[in-house]
């Protein structure tokens, strides 16, 4: 897909992997709509040339709570109206929003997993992704096909996690939501193939993001970097994630797949 003068929605685009994807797409001359609960705090950072001067005219922010369907509907409609005014048709969606809340099914003192935390994980990570995707896809199916042999209309990217494969103790809720996203990938790609829309999921191991930094203890963080990360022996960088997003968008033959982005890391049962 050609990225220039196409519009992409990025949920969770105000920080972390989402914001890195925003800056990467702006560099490609795309239009980007950030959907998040808070606006980006560093959007006019002078050290980030992709988010200064003229590129800001290709950027919009819409506040949205992914646990409220009416807010998702409003946000998508706002972006669609924006595409009508800019003349930059929809190109796709990057589902970057997510939450990580720990909790064992029953912990060492006999307390059960919080129902509230479980439902919040499902609401944001799974239902939020599902509802935003179906709403964006309902507009993508009407976008004019690209003037290429493949006649592509758009791309949906979802974000899973290595926890879907190797979830740790205390990640039962988080792993469940990320595993469900893996399971949605192929059937969704099959649903949308008739409309010339691709669906791809990225499965990252830990990346240097605020969510990662808040989720792992110092001990776990050290153990991961020293004993689990294969090569390079570090967490992934947001710009490496963003480069993967761009490759998926531009490579028309990538469809119905889930890609591990892990540096070869496989997380053991005990860290």
TrEMBL record:
Keywords: NADP, Oxidoreductase. It holds the Pfam family adh_short. It comes from the Eukaryota. Belongs to the short-chain dehydrogenases/reductases (SDR) family. The keyword NADP applies. InterPro entries: NAD(P)-bd_dom_sf (IPR036291), Sc_DH/Rdtase_CS (IPR020904), SDR_fam (IPR002347). GO terms for molecular function: oxidoreductase activity. It comes from Collybiopsis luxurians FD-317 M1. SUPFAM superfamilies: NAD(P)-binding Rossmann-fold domains. This is 3-hydroxyacyl-CoA dehydrogenase.
